[in-house]
Design brief:
The chain is an alpha+beta fold. The chain contains 3 helices and 5 strands, in the order βααββββα. The chain has one domain: Thiol Ester Dehydrase, Chain A (Roll), CATH 3.10.129.10. A 5-stranded antiparallel beta sheet has the order 1-3-4-5-2.
Length: 140
């Protein structure tokens, strides 16, 4: 994992998730790809907590496609576990933001990861992050 996993811009958002049976494999372990679904759920809460739901960002003409995603599994998550997904901004560029994540189970970080998002306009070309969004990401 990159050293920037612990860099933080603004504040952390936490999303509580109970692992559903449908998110597990035959052995009762959470299927690895669901981690990215949990990241997305926490990311939606991240923007909502800052006063602007993602659909409002889109209504203003901006989108944030994921252009890179990474997860490192350090422990296991099983059916019916109650996990907390923490998300925060770790790096901010002219037209991109890196969000970092931790999946926490019983006080232990069992997964860490990140997603890179590029801000695009209606033509799906990279655009400078609008000031209102940069301010929301940076707020303490």
């Amino acid at each position: 994992m990159h050293d920037t996993i612990f860099t933080m811009i603004g504040r952390v958002t936490e999303e509580l998730i109970r692992v559903r049976y449908a998110e597990t494999d035959m052995m009762g372990h959470a299927y690895y790809a669901n981690t990215f679904v949990w990241f997305e759920q926490a990311r939606s809460t991240y923007f909502r907590e800052r006063g602007i739901p993602y659909k409002e960002i889109e209504a203003r003409g901006y989108k944030f496609p994921v252009v890179e995603a990474h997860a490192r599994y350090k422990g296991e998550v099983k059916y019916d576990d109650e996990i907390t997904v923490r998300v925060w901004a770790a790096e901010l560029k002219r037209a991109a933001v890196r969000l970092n994540y931790e999946v926490v189970l019983e006080g232990e970080v069992v997964t860490e990861g990140y997603t890179w998002h590029v801000c695009v306009g209606s033509a799906f070309k990279a655009v400078t992050l609008p000031e209102f969004l940069r301010e929301l990401i940076e707020q303490a």
